[in-house]
Amino acid sequence: MEKLSKCVTDKNFIVVGKIGRPHGIRGAIRVYPLTDFPERFLKMRSAYIDDTLVEINTVQYHNDFIIMDIKGFDDREKAAAATGKLLRVERGEAAPLAEGEYYTFDIVGLKVWNEEGIVLGTIINVLKTGSNDVYVIKSTESAEPILLPALKKMVTKIDIEHKRMDVIWPEKD
């Protein structure tokens, strides 16, 4: 039903990459994209590593990662200290989505209501299956999660602002 981006959120930030090992001896870092919009890196001039805003000097694509030169990262040791950390941008810099597309981090946390007005639970995860995504719902009535295919015939409405998803799902007897 919806195309979902794999970016995740931390309050007002979204993760767009994970920093790998240093590249070379002059402080360049490898960044592995964690976004459905890897072209965004070409336009990036700043980002956050932990809570520190960093200025990006240059970006180069290389195989499955990006080589990034960051102001102040002048040697291999400085770059190595960032290994394993997440590269984040402010949520307002999220790539725009088309109508009917949602970020995964906007879907997780929605309350799920069936057509009788009964709350089934809260979405806790989105599984990528290839043909369609599957919403994992923490049930209000069972320890077992509910798996809901992300299909138009199942999901009738998504209201991010009110944190609500309406679905066609039979009430359990």
Automatic annotation (TrEMBL):
Q: Does the keyword Disulfide bond apply?
A: no
Chaperone is among the record's keywords: yes
Protein location: Cytoplasm
Q: What is its main location?
A: cytoplasm
Domain annotation Ribosome maturation factor RimM PRC barrel: ranges: 105-171
Give the domain of life: Bacteria
Name all RimM N-terminal domain ranges.
15-91
The family database entries (Gene3D superfamilies) matched by this protein are listed as:
PRC-barrel domain, RimM
- Tell me the Pfam families matching this sequence: PRC_RimM (PF24986), RimM (PF01782)
> Could you tell me which HAMAP family the record lists for this protein?
Ribosome_mat_RimM
What information about domains appears in the record's comments? The PRC barrel domain binds ribosomal protein uS19.
Q: What does this protein do?
A: An accessory protein needed during the final step in the assembly of 30S ribosomal subunit, possibly for assembly of the head region. Essential for efficient processing of 16S rRNA. May be needed both before and after RbfA during the maturation of 16S rRNA. It has affinity for free ribosomal 30S subunits but not for 70S ribosomes.
Q: Which family does it belong to?
A: Belongs to the RimM family.
Identify the NCBIfam families for this entry. Answer: 16S_RimM
**Descriptive protein name:** Ribosome maturation factor RimM
- Organism of derivation: Pectinatus haikarae
Gene (UniProt): rimM
